[in-house]
Amino acid sequence: MPRPIPLLRVDGPVMVLGGPYGNLEATRAALAEAARLKISSDRIVCTGDVVAYGADAAATVALVRGAVGHVVMGNCEASIAAAAPDCGCGFPAGSSCERLSAAWFAYAARELDEDARCWMAALPPRIDLEIAGVRLAVIHGGVDVINRFVFASTAAATKRAEIERSGCDGVIGGHCGLPFTQAIDGRLWHNAGAVGLPANDGTTRVWCSILTAEAGGIAIEHRALEYDWAAAAAGMRRAGLPQEYAAALATGLWPSCDVLPLKEIRERGVPLVPERVFWLPPARDAVRKRRRACTRDELWPRGERAAQLRLAPHKFRDPQLTATGVPRAHVTMERLTTLWFNTGTLCNIACRNCYIESSPRNDRLVYLTRGEVAAFLDEIESAGTGTQEIGFTGGEPFMNPDFIAMLHDSLARGFRVLVLTNAMRPMQRAKARLLDIRNKFGNRLTMRVSLDHFTPERHEDERGPGTFRPTLDGLIWLARNSFRLAVAGRTMWGDDESAERAGYARLFAEHAIAVDAASPRELVLFPEIDPGADVPEITDACWGLLGKSPADVMCASSRMIVKRKGSDRPVVVACTLLPYDPRFELGVSLRAATRTVALNHPNCAKFCVLGGASCSAR
Ligand code: SF4
Ligand code: SF4
After folding, report:
1. Ligand 2 centroid from CA 85, angstroms
2. To which H or E segment does residue 297 belong?
3. Ligand 1 binding pocket mutation candidate from 340, 352, 358, 576 (most atoms within 8 A of CB)
4. What ranges in 180-332 are assigned the alpha helix state H?
């Protein structure tokens, strides 16, 4: 016999709370807000997961039982009540979320007594809320599947099917931990977010919502709550819970994004702005008419949050001083260990986040010639720069008709050489000549293949459909033919590093690719560069505060040669990351290019000093 669905009829404002997660301080803050707004306990609804990551499972359950009138069962309650082996969140096997959740689940299960378990077991999986003449199904995940993740970016058709299954005018869901409100074919999907964990928006705030019947519809207010997150985090550390989640309370960033769709991953760290929106229920026949073309109106947050954060315009102007008048950090070149050649920006593909904006049409940096490269190799010898390594990057270096000759010349002069390639068709067309080079120079050549992620979906999200298999084939060919190899991936999806390295390790083992995924030298994971993101300026004082040395960044030991379209000769620039910015152009010879570099670009902060990137093979 299915349990009857409890019905809650209200005429005043209703507070919706998602996931208290055992975070006692945050739950107290939410309830204090309800008291301030004069919302009584019988008008507070919780979408479940009263316990999870936080340190105070028992106290939070006691508080919620006493002060929240209506609680639906979350998967955490279902799992604890059933003495299940894990939280049942539905995290992917082997993911960081799964690993981290094991620790808090065991802890919470120990903390809770039989009485709390019985309360959890008796919670309804659904409560219907009647407000403003409409009926909304309050659930945890999906209508029938308690741990179904429904995000803002989840397809409208999926949400429509869930709403139809509920038989209501809309759904109030929880589980995913991120707040949003949408009209699906005019009907409501609302998620209040979570009280127990920040919304992965780079702030310490947690979220709840207030629904008020108004003018024939419902005013929905997404409210951000400040609370004593430091005390909550300290409690988690004392309890021996995963440090990663304690840190998340301070940073506002989730330690892992394993369960997130790509849109939500890209919005990680972009602060949400509290807002009051209005939902007007559609007439029933209007819903029926719209059934074929499923629509989604994003009432809150609206549109592409990832594009909302822009660089503050007064930053990175003065090479000597930051916007606040503090001396800017500089880097002095210690020794030219690596000289890079940008062979030209043309590429066989156009990746979404290519930092140099390469594509089959971008020739802002034109092809270097064999003679131009040779002239700089001569200068290395005549100036005695002590350079040991030559790097080639593009675009795709193998598109340059002189590339194999440049490669041969560099190796023949005794340099170690690093080639950055996507290992696709341009490289594969040169297989015979590459084998000759490997036979002659062996391990002095390293091929670093850009494989953005170990899954086709994420690699192709960045690089375009059909790009994963050709790159993997190229990598497998290089491995079978004993080339010295490295792989470059990206960390833009917010995976934690150990999970990402483990994913690559599985792929390498499956295809017998001799790359050690645990080695940061062999598997280089680059942070994403978002050209619009606001970043701090690096001052002299930052080195000490961050425990970094100017000698660690690329421009302390590298330079790059580029040739701009329309120029009659190549020039030297400070590093591989700033090929276009004229402020980082250092002259036409290596001798002139040793001067100190002011860290006067967002890439200096985001990519080098805070992100820790280096292009070198060593
Ligand atoms: S393969 Fe490399 S150079 Fe080409 S577009 Fe992609 S990131 Fe840019
Ligand atoms: S981007 Fe990095 S390597 Fe380039 S100039 Fe700035 S700090 Fe130096």
Report:
1. 49
2. strand 296-300
3. 358
4. 229-238, 243-251, 262-266, 284-289
347 lines ligand 2 (CB under 6 A): no
Average of per-residue pLDDT across 102-113: 89
Please measure the distance between the N-terminal and C-terminal CA atoms of the chain and give it in whole angstroms.
Answer: 66
Report helix, strand or coil for 131: strand
Q: Is 333 in the pocket of ligand 2 (CB under 6 A)?
A: no
User: pLDDT by residue (tens digit) across 309-366?
Assistant: 556 768 888 889 998 889 999 999 989 999 999 999 999 998 877 878 888 988 999 9
Q: What pLDDT score was predicted for residue 617?
A: 40
Query: What pLDDT, on the 0 to 100 scale, is given for residue 610?
Result: 79
573 lines ligand 2 (CB under 6 A): no
Which residue's CA is the closest to the ligand 1 atom numbered 1?
422
Contact 368, 570 (CB under 8 A): yes
Pocket test for ligand 2, best of 328, 331, 616 (most atoms within 8 A of CB): 331
Q: Which of 169-183, 265-279, 498-512 has the lowest mean pLDDT?
A: 265-279
Question: Of the ranges 337-351, 481-495, 498-512, which one carries the lowest mean pLDDT score?
Answer: 481-495
**Contact at 8 Å (CB) between 96 and 256?**
yes
Q: How far is the CA of 459 from the centre of ligand 2 (A)?
A: 26
Q: Is the minimum distance from the CB of 542 to ligand 2 under 6 angstroms?
A: no
Q: Tell me the pLDDT band of 616, cut-offs 50, 70 and 90.
A: very low
Kindly give the number of the ligand 2 atom that is closest to the alpha carbon of 600: 6
- Comparing CA positions, the residue from 396, 417, 455, 612 lying closest to residue 525 is 612
Q: What is the DSSP letter of 555?
A: G
pLDDT at position 618: 36
* 219: phi then psi, degrees, rounded to nearest 5: -85, 130
Q: How confident is the model at residue 464 (pLDDT cuts 50, 70, 90)?
A: confident
Closest CA relative to residue 530, chosen from 342, 310, 200? 310
- Span from the CA of 236 to the centroid of ligand 1 (angstroms): 43
Question: Can you list the domains of the chain with their CATH numbers?
Answer: 7-300 (3.60.21.10), 330-609 (3.20.20.70)
In short, whether 358's Cβ falls inside 6 Å of ligand 1 is yes
Is the distance from the beta carbon of residue 554 to the nearest atom of ligand 2 less than 6 Å? yes
The alpha carbon of 339 and the centre of ligand 1 are apart by a number of angstroms equal to 20
Q: Please report the beta strands in 174-257, taking only residues with DSSP state E, as ranges in sequence order.
A: 180-184, 187-191, 206-214, 217-225
**Residue 23, both tokens:** 């975070």
Q: How far apart are CA 172 and CA 194, in angstroms?
A: 13
